[in-house]
Backbone:
């Protein structure tokens, strides 16, 4: 995966430039990446520079994501900066990452995965089953919207964009009674005071690659590859290999109602997946195990079978 070359150690005079989005969570992920490299090579914080880049998904807040584009809404500008040499590495939430990288870039470093589950967040406490009929739930996720409507078609779902802090403010203002957030994001931000109820995967599968941080680099940058090799987590790589192979086979993105979670137990990997119509009117699921060495093949096979079962036009609302 990585070239067998010794890394060139960053210095304050020649720092490693880390590209990231500017939200509190994105910055926390960039700082975690910096700290892991610093510990691995005994470096001071001055040997790194955090470079904030505003993406299309960040800039346009007044419309649903599906109206402003498909794949790469939170990655395109960062990847352009990486290709131009303005930054040395790019830190991404893997659930936002398209399965294909632009020519000249590679994503071959993953940090240890955080808790992948979704959290149900309500200022009044309780869970999804405690909401009254007709209650308003806010989410910007097409997947979460479809999963919610499949389980509780009596609820009203409204668009709910913004970072964690913005969404909590909207709850306080009464825009919605509840929302969903990733447990991983809350943990990374240290927001233990947010009223949440983690949702078991058996009840609601998370987004593909949720909870994982990926670091992208230029494919010909062997020096940076040496730095990243030291912090890559192979177990996370195997799990995401299965999940992202599933996503690729379904031609999916973060704007498609697809859920998936891979877990390793001994020498086997278990992959659970779910695809939904956006209105929640139909759900197809699968659950399989295979040897760990066949992780990507497992995801691809599951995708083929789900596509065949779904037929054309599945990711459209039912008539």
Residues:
């Amino acid at each position: 995966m990585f070239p067998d070359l010794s890394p060139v150690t960053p210095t304050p005079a020649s720092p490693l430039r880390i590209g990231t989005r500017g939200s509190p969570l994105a910055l926390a992920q960039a700082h975690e990446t910096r700290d892991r490299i610093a510990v691995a090579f005994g470096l001071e914080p001055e040997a790194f520079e955090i470079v904030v880049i505003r993406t299309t998904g960040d800039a346009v807040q007044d419309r649903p994501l599906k109206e402003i584009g498909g794949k790469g809404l939170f990655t395109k500008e960062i990847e352009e900066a990486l290709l131009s040499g303005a930054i040395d590495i790019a830190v991404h939430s893997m659930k936002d990452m398209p399965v294909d990288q632009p020519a000249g870039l590679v994503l071959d470093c993953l940090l240890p995965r955080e808790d992948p589950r979704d959290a149900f967040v309500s200022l009044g406490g309780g869970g999804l089953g405690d909401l009254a009929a007709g209650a308003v739930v806010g989410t910007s996720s097409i997947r979460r919207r479809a999963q919610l409507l499949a389980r509780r078609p009596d609820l009203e779902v409204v668009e709910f964009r913004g970072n964690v802090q913005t969404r909590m403010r909207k709850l306080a203002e009464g825009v919605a009674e509840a929302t969903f957030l990733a447990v991983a994001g809350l943990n990374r931000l240290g927001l233990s005071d947010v009223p949440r109820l983690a949702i078991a995967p058996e009840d609601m599968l998370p987004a593909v690659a949720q909870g994982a941080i990926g670091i992208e680099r230029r494919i010909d940058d062997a020096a940076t590859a040496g730095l990243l090799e030291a912090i890559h987590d192979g177990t996370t790589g195997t799990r995401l290999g299965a999940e992202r192979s599933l996503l690729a086979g379904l031609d999916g993105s973060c704007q498609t109602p697809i859920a998936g979670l891979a877990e390793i137990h001994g020498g086997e990997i278990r992959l659970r997946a779910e695809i939904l119509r956006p209105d929640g009117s139909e759900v197809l699921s699968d659950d399989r195990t295979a040897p760990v060495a066949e992780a990507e093949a497992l995801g691809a096979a599951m995708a083929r079978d789900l596509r065949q079962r779904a037929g054309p036009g599945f990711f459209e609302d039912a008539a």
User: Anything to note?
Assistant: Residues 134 and 263 are 36 Å apart (CA to CA). The chain has nine helices and 13 strands.
